[in-house]
Amino acid sequence: MTAATDVEEVELANTAFYETMERGDFDVLSTLWLEDEISCVHPGWPVLSGRGDVLRSYALIMANTEYIQFFLTDVVVNVADDTALVTCTENILSGGPAEEAGELGPLVGQLVVATNTFRRTPDGWKLWSHHGSPVLADTGEGEGGEGTPEGDEAPA
Fold first, then answer.
1. Of 66-80, 84-98, 120-134, which range is least confident?
2. Region 69-79: what's the mean pLDDT?
3. Are 148 and 140 in contact (CB under 8 A)?
């Protein structure tokens, strides 16, 4: 395979991961992960290691999230032999249960930077690790100064 084809296949595997989360399809989601030792860090959570703990975390998230949609930006794919690294920004729109039946709960927006690591298998590219970290500060130019939240001094 050419490197461009590998990159395209990894992009498709990465997109499938997020689309499956949006649909809340746990059965398909579990097929996207390696059968080997895997790991995951959700924003604010400790490191989860092992297939059981990682998949259980997604089952919990899916069971407690009425609606979720990911808009991916800043997607960069790097492939080296049988390993691929995807970095991206997850622009997440989600909502929990509504107070009244038949209604959609309040929607919340969140930015998360993510790193997804894939390994090539005979069945295609599979997730090996997912790490998401919340974006807590505006890193753009503004009153606070470039790259620092609200004018705080950058660490020395």
1. 84-98
2. 97
3. no
Give residues with Cβ within 8 angstroms of 108, minimum separation 6: 93, 94, 95
**Contact between residue 139 and residue 119 where contact means Cβ atoms under 8 Å apart:** no
The burial of 38, by beta-carbon neighbours within 10 Å (0-12 exposed, 13-18 middle, 19 or more buried), is given as buried
- Tell me the pTM: 0.81
Helix axes 3-23, 51-63, angle to 10 degrees: 50
Q: Catalogue the long-range contacts made by 32-35 (C-beta closer than 8 Å, 24 or more residues apart).
A: 32/126, 32/127, 33/126, 33/127, 33/128, 34/119, 34/121, 34/126, 34/127, 34/128
pLDDT band at 144; cut points 50, 70, 90: very low
pLDDT of residue 98: 67
Residue pair 40/127 in contact by the 8 Å Cβ criterion: no
Instruction: Say if strands 107-121 and 48-49 run parallel, antiparallel, or are unpaired.
Output: unpaired
